[in-house]
Every structure is written in C-alpha cells, then in structure tokens.
From TrEMBL:
SMART domains: SEC14. Residues 144-308 form the CRAL-TRIO domain. It comes from Calcidiscus leptoporus. One of its GO terms (molecular function) is phosphatidylinositol bisphosphate binding. This is CRAL-TRIO domain-containing protein. GO terms for cellular component: membrane. PROSITE patterns: CRAL_TRIO. InterPro entries: CRAL-TRIO_dom, CRAL-TRIO_dom_sf.
C-alpha cells in the first residue's frame, strides 16, 4: 500500500548507496553494481520544489475547468490578463518574442493552463517566453532537435483519455544520454509538450503520461536531464500533468532507482504517479482506468494507430 511504499522510499534514501546496491546487485542482471551506485547517487540530487511552487490547490482538482474555450467569459479573463501584462511590462517582451515563434497566443495558452487564474497566468507568460528562448523551442525544429525527437523517446500521441486530456508517450529505451546531452534532451521534452499544447483542449485540461518502461536499461537513464526537466521545463510550461502511468519498470529501476527518486519529490507529485506491472510490452489492464484502450498505442496492446513518421513531419513543421 501507500504507507509501505513511503516507508520503502525513506529506507532507500537513508541507506548508504554502496551498501544498498551491493546487497541487491546480485538480483540486477541489467547493470553492474558500479553503474547502479553512480546512477543512484546522481538521482539523489533531484528536486521537485520548482514544480510545487507553480502548482496550487486548483491543480489538485482533477475536474475540468467550467470555462469553455472561445467563450465570452474566457475573452473577458484574457482582456484582464493582457492589462496585467501591459502594467508589468511583460507585454512588450511577449510581443517581441511573438515575431519569432509559431505560438501566437501564449497569453491565452497560459490563461487556460493556469485554470483561468489571471495572476498565475500573468506570472507564467514571461517565464514561458524566457524558457522558450533559452531552449530554442517553438520557433521551428533545427537539425539537433530533429535528431533528438526522431529517436522517439517522447512523443505526443494525439489521443485523449476519458476526460479529454492529451496522451504523451515516453519510451526512454530510445534515449541515449551519450548521443543526447542533458540540455538537448530537456529541450526535446519541452518541444513535445509544446506540440501537445497546440491543442486548445489540452491547454485547458492537461495531459496524462504513459511512461513505458518496457525494455529500458540503466544506460538509458539521464539524471542531469531529469533535473533540468523537473527544475526548469515542467515548472515553466503551463501544462497540467494529471497522471503518470509507469508501465513495467524493470526490477533494478522499480525497486532501487525509483524509490530514491520518489523520496525526493513531494507527496503532491507522488499522488499522480501510478505503477503497473503486466505482460512484457503490454499496458496492463489497470492502465485502462486512466487511459482507455482506444487511446493506447497499438505497440502497447491498445487500439490507437500512431503514425510516427507523420508525427515527425508535423514536428518539423512546428
């Protein structure tokens, strides 16, 4: 249960890494003890506080906002947001950036993503503009970003869960940290999330993540990139992650690495994470309670036909 998982996380976090990995390395045929020790030590630096600061009680509610896209109420709130941005001077910065980005409605995107709370949206706009400039996203896909996205570690499926939230599919088995530096991988995650945010309903309702760990190995893990994603990308993007479904984590990751990670993230984040075990390569039936089979890709045993090449072409055009 939840109490047992919490106790295990505290035990792993408090146990000296070399003792823990030596004790359990005989059960982990996926990597050497040295690799596990190094990875576990790097994971101990994870910090989710930046996400906690940008989430409030409104983000805890899993119900959709009552305000509809394109409604008069939304238009009135957008007008109030624009006034705040002009008052703070952030409007001029946004208008300057607007000339170079494919995203022409960032204030509206932030308003929807922050559940129509004008003050939160006003704070979000300049942070988002700064991050998009720093990571060079939202203004086309250059050769480096194209190469990282083409690896297929993260894609936006275009399918929806039962509540209309977009589905992002993570396959870290396709990620090679040696070929994709931390900043570049974090950049690709930002780009994929922005692709999802091109949908007005995803802006309003958020996303769920299918974290498909089938076939993942320790060599695919990239702690420096994870730190950037947790500290910079996710806190800045006005996107609500409603659920993370972790599918079939291998033993050494599920029992050694993940407890260390979870020991350093807040209860708020942990409450949105569900772990599922089942047949190799297939999304267990428990996942269907969050994402219906019709929205799960065929590769994971679902019914959603995902054309990766077509998605890549749309990414190049973004």
């Amino acid at each position: 249960g939840e109490a047992r998982a919490e106790a295990w996380s505290r035990f792993v976090a408090a146990t000296p890494i070399h003792l823990f990995t030596l004790k359990y390395s005989s059960m982990a045929d996926d990597a050497s003890t040295g690799s596990a020790m190094t990875l576990a030590n790097q994971m101990k630096g994870l910090d989710s506080s930046a996400i906690d600061e940008t989430w409030d009680h409104a983000d805890e509610e899993q119900v959709p906002p009552s305000i509809m896209a394109g409604s008069q109420e939304e238009a009135a709130l957008l007008q109030a947001l624009v006034a705040k941005l002009e008052e703070s001077g952030a409007m001029a910065e946004w208008l300057s950036f607007k000339e170079s980005t494919a995203f022409q409605d960032i204030p509206l995107l932030c308003l929807r993503g922050r559940k129509y709370q004008v003050d939160r949206a006003a704070a979000s706009v300049p942070r988002l503009v700064e991050m998009m400039r720093e990571y060079r996203v939202g203004s086309g896909v250059d050769e480096s970003l194209q190469k990282t996205i083409k690896a297929g570690a993260a894609v936006y499926l275009g399918s929806k869960d039962a509540m209309g939230r977009g589905v992002v599919w993570l396959r870290l088995r396709n990620h090679d940290p040696k070929a994709q530096p931390p900043a570049e991988f974090a950049r690709s995650i930002a780009a994929v999330m922005l692709m999802a945010l091109d949908d007005p309903e995803v802006q309003r309702l958020g996303i769920v993540i299918l974290h498909d760990m089938n076939g993942i190995r320790l060599k695919n893990m990239n702690p420096p990139a994870f730190k950037l994603i947790l500290s910079k990308v996710l806190p800045t993007l006005p996107i609500r992650v409603a659920r993370v479904c972790i599918i079939n984590p291998p033993w050494i990751i599920g029992k050694v690495v993940m407890p260390i990670v979870l020991a350093f993230v807040s209860k708020k984040i942990k409450s949105r994470i569900q772990i599922f075990h089942g047949p190799k390569g297939i999304a267990p039936s428990g996942v269907h309670g969050f994402v219906p089979p019709s929205s799960i890709p065929e590769e994971l045993g679902g019914e959603w036909h995902f054309d990766f090449d077509k998605w890549l072409a749309s990414a190049d055009a973004a």
